[in-house]
């Protein structure tokens, strides 16, 4: 197995390169870019929504159960089920659960933490967080890799590097 | 050598993350569980006393009633411990020279009280009242367990607030006929009046027994 | 809004001629530089000294009980709550800039968001300590959490203080997560720029292995947008709830329905002032003028003017309602507030928060940095005085005339307060030194977008 | 509340002996606990042999009598687990009628005062008992030679027949010996006046139950006059027309406000010259039917219109001639036998004490005194400086003081013999009306000490007396064993009140003329309302409670009139120098609203230099001014001290009137519904619903309730420093509202305690449920749940919550074992407040429940209610329309404080309704 990395100076070139590699089905393709290029298609917002709803209803239920059933107390003559007063905590709980779920969801979805990846071995790869737009092809097939080099030649990659995987 | 980390770091990072979460959860769990353990509540741990007094012997063996020694239990908040004089009603006749009884004899002779260590100990801010419980048919056993089986006295119930509240929310099933209050090992029999009847007979229900003012002041 | 900001006469949000590589290198270099600036060391030493004496003050209060403070009967709250509300207000500025203006997509936000968020995190931390410290029995603070206990008891969910506790807890946690989440790509950038092994490992661990892969960016963007969308209402709710801490009471001057929005205005007012106050010297000291341009300064100046007007409106309503309600207690309280022992506090509040910022109507004045520093410092102090007025004068002059009293802070009050200032700057300066002060990846986007 | 009979077969000796044993035990554990107030001794100590009638957790009550400053007041001491914890008035005793004053309430603290732990000493060096006995034997030998010519006894007024008998025995054994009396603040003018009027020492006893009109002239009727508790009770009974059929009217002319004046319908500030005019005008009008001028004209008109119902009372500052004139006026108004009675004084051999002391000092200075025995008097501190008592004392070869705690005198004498506390001793005392009470010891002396009955016989015989035997013997003729037991258990000897004396007014009395006072600033010296002549200075409860009229605590400032303050530009706490005759004194000043323009009042009782850790150095010593005459000079020194004080507010505010209401007769409206508006929309309310009503017509602001609450509820003392930040802990405070010009304010007094709001604002804001409602309508404060957020206090519109800023209870020099075991001792960082005496309710509740079928708890009396001499409080079940409290709440005067906040308080007030004379402007 090996990774073949192409670094481009412009995102347009990268996008074209990635498209070509994918169309050819040469192996697993992944991009690494200094700025986000892709967007949308994430399921995490739905997770956040669900967690938020759950956090809010959970908090609301907790308060209701505690004051109505578990430990009813006469506080200032107010009714046990003073639902308007339960809203603030429900809201905060919902928001907090959303944030926490979002961060956790992201870690899971992005498979983080992942301190090591084979592409790290590439000397030039660090420019992925600076100015170069990388596309990495992962394949065990030397022919496929060679084909890829040829395929992307016209896009003038700034760097090409191959590392073992 | 461009990579900063080795492949092993991936596993390590995940383990650290999961371990951290697990440790946090475990800590919380422990924090929740600890006050409920018998160890923390001292349930079943005998307390060292100046005289190794055995309820097993005196109650189960000799058949002495609780009220013989804890005379105030029916009329006062505190049950009270027997004055040395009570011990000496017998121990001036039996076991007169036993070494273990030396503190009792000394107390009697020097007129200094025996300092018994508390076994059942509520915090100062909790006000318990024996007489009312006895009057309403709550057996000693309910809170002190099988005293008659204790060679050395130990706490038998956790005595947490939750313990008190469990009964105060619904005392009925734990009530006994008045005569059986000091009886150890008592069981509901066919002749025992049902909980509702006992509640009614004792006129329980007029109070909200879960009010803080019942126990705290 | 966008229109007026993209007004051509106004300088651009980033100096012309910057490239991705250049911005990345410049900002990274600040965090990765070998030695440290002298001003930094001086500031840091001062902050740590303040922090240390603050820790001592906290320990002293813990050992002696809160009698060491000036809190008395009937002014039960005093400094700890004044400072709490003040800090949490300052914290709001950061969240507003990074979350709220993210949602409305204004481009000048980019260079400011990191500084603002860092400010939020540490101001919120300072704020979060007070509600715990100020308790009579701080070691039992966890009783405010709803957790199953052997007593079978729950918190009192109807109490604004409980809401407050929940809100602060949520806000501090969420702010830290939001801040860290926003840092991830930059931590990766630093990891990749670092040359020494130790530094690489340091940032490498913090970056969690973020590399900017397509999968990462895809989720990252979506999540960031949603988090920002959560943080914006959260910051509003937090300050509304802080307002309810007072409005939920019967106490004269507190029992007012306008308090929640009023507290949001006040919070943002001090928040923007604090951002301005920190950004002006920082851009000079760190040479950030290319990124935080005159444009940013101008925008902040205008924002400050806007919030000053909002706050001014609240003050007018405050005075109006004191009389409109027709309650003797409210009227007498208000008269005491404007003419009693603490009258200077009230008038200073008006001058510093409302009158002084009116200078910002003039663009030329907005361009004067010393003046801006002065106005923002004034607003920061003015907002502190405003809270002093609220927390002290109301219980001091409540419904029952026999219990009208006095309040005076002690040296321990001040000491703890300056201790939190120390805590804030210690944390802030550490971040300035170790983390990118401007969101690098967003700058890269900006540079790219402008080209 | 009843006095429980003494337990046991033989009520005489055994129970006491038994109690002694329990207490001996307690003293041991007290000593243990005393060294470490924080640490708890958790061991259980059963007695070796169970005393009958005493059980763990049990309650017993025994009668006793307190005789502060020559005035006897019956009390009942409550013991818990065999230990005295609370003092309450004895309803059987005429001077108490069940009430106590602040000083009586605080006596229990003195009992446990560690400062009392002093040893027998000779010139400050501790001595063994035997050395004293030898010394006394040597003295006796000396007396035998000259019949005791060198022996002098110095006591306060003696109202104890047994003590009188002991003194008589000494005087009989040594005919050469002399007995002198000195009370600290003697009432010489009163005695002298009575002698001028009736030709012999008599006591003129006011009977307020029959007095519909009262004119007080610098009157101390409700403060220090003998029988003041009783007077307060009957005076108050005539104030609220919805509580009684009669209605009285009170006039007061006075140099500085008094409790009577503040209570009164018409209060007239009068300096010495105006007072002179008033007395002369009064006499002229009543005795000679002339028409006087000014304020007194309308008053005398009213007095004369009500013959047999009017009473004039002159305070002890009025000169003897004026006193005599007042007696003549009262006789002329037909009050004899109705509004007042003339009896033999309860004091044995009353004398003009200033003369008595002067004679003693002269003898001492001349070296005629070889042995001076001082009992229960502190002349080194209290004697007028001009007499030179201390210097003369130094010339006495042998002096001996029997005192229950070290003081200035015990420091100056040769022998200091620690005395038992009054509550630890046998004793007897005659009340102001002659009724006898016998006191039994409540406990074995905690710190040792001797009884005077043990000591005095040693002056003439070999054997120390036995206190019990001595007192028993005094009563042997009058009481057989049964009657004796009865008297001990009731606390009074039935039917022992003095009969009316058939002595006639001397005709000359009507023609006396008091000397005309000089013009200029006049000086008055008044005892501090709590500290007396200084004897209570060591009592922290008394020091800390804001004084009834000045509201000052922890200080005895010089009281100046608002006019003087304005003229000299003085503010409260500015230090002034007073010069009078040859003496000067510096003290901080305090502006007293309503004080006559040209009057300066020096408050005695402060500035003691040997009063234990609490009292030493508190306040300013004004004794140098005593005995000086003439006008006084006042100068500011430029110094300033901060003075701690209680609540005082502007009563003229619309807001104040929502809290402390006055009503005019016309405003009274019958309540729409007689049923009190209960708020039980929440289910689960108990059958009993507690509530309280406080009658503002009754309260005289005497502070008894404040200290009663403190004693009952383990309320800690915080000290002056903390009080300056208003961190005092009193659960009950007396608010003052001054309305009108500061020169002649009308003062409202309002006891303010937790109102137990049904819609409690404090509960809603507590985040941890530490303050909630129970089913019986109490606003509970669960100390162990409170984390100290203090929002509840901010949100309590009545500001009745008190926060423990520090560990105050721990810092008190009071052994933990002396606190009320039925009430938690609150630690630092928690909120506390009035609980409606929850422990008393709980006791009643348990008693009712153990008693069986639905026995409702009845007769719960709160501590403040029990103490109050004027019966201002009514407490009970508001769900029962027939209860006293329900009836009070249904009365037309009833209102809720700050009603418009809709907190629905369970405490309500009855508005003050004055009964002004239409002929006078009420601000007069
Ligand atoms: S209410 Fe209190 S202050 Fe008023 S008269 Fe009664 S005891 Fe005295
Ligand atoms: S008076 Fe104050 S403390 Fe008492 S119930 Fe009302 S609000 Fe609460
Ligand atoms: S009712 Fe009891 S607790 Fe309340 S003020 Fe009176 S004495 Fe104090
Ligand atoms: S608000 Fe609650 S926590 Fe304590 S101080 Fe008041 S009861």
Automatic annotation (TrEMBL), chain A:
This is DUF3341 domain-containing protein. It holds the Pfam family ActD. Keywords: Membrane, Transmembrane, Transmembrane helix. The chain crosses the membrane at residues 46-69, 89-110. It comes from the Bacteria. The keyword RNA-binding does not apply. It comes from Rhodovastum atsumiense.
TrEMBL record, chain B:
It comes from the Bacteria. Residues 126-216 form the Cytochrome c7-like domain. Pfam families: Cytochrome_C7. The chain crosses the membrane at residues 12-33. SUPFAM superfamilies: Multiheme cytochromes. Keywords: Membrane, Transmembrane, Transmembrane helix. InterPro entries: Cyt_c7-like, Multihaem_cyt_sf. This is Cytochrome c3 family protein. It comes from Rhodovastum atsumiense.
TrEMBL record, chain C:
Keywords: Cell membrane, Membrane, Transmembrane, Transmembrane helix. It is found in: Cell membrane. It is a multi-pass membrane protein. The chain crosses the membrane at residues 39-64, 84-106, 118-141, 161-183, 222-242, 262-282, 303-324, 344-362, 371-394, 414-441. The keyword Transmembrane applies. InterPro entries: NrfD-like. GO terms for cellular component: plasma membrane. The keyword Transferase does not apply. Its main location: membrane. It holds the Pfam family NrfD. Belongs to the NrfD family. This is Hydrogenase.
TrEMBL record, chain D:
Residues 690-720, 745-776 form the 4Fe-4S ferredoxin-type domain. Pfam families: Fer4_11. Residues 660-684 are annotated as: Disordered. InterPro entries: 4Fe4S_Fe-S-bd (IPR017896), Asp_de-COase-like_dom_sf (IPR009010). PROSITE patterns: 4FE4S_FER_2, PROKAR_LIPOPROTEIN. SUPFAM superfamilies: 4Fe-4S ferredoxins, ADC-like, Formate dehydrogenase/DMSO reductase, domains 1-3. It comes from the Bacteria. This is 4Fe-4S dicluster domain-containing protein. It comes from Rhodovastum atsumiense.
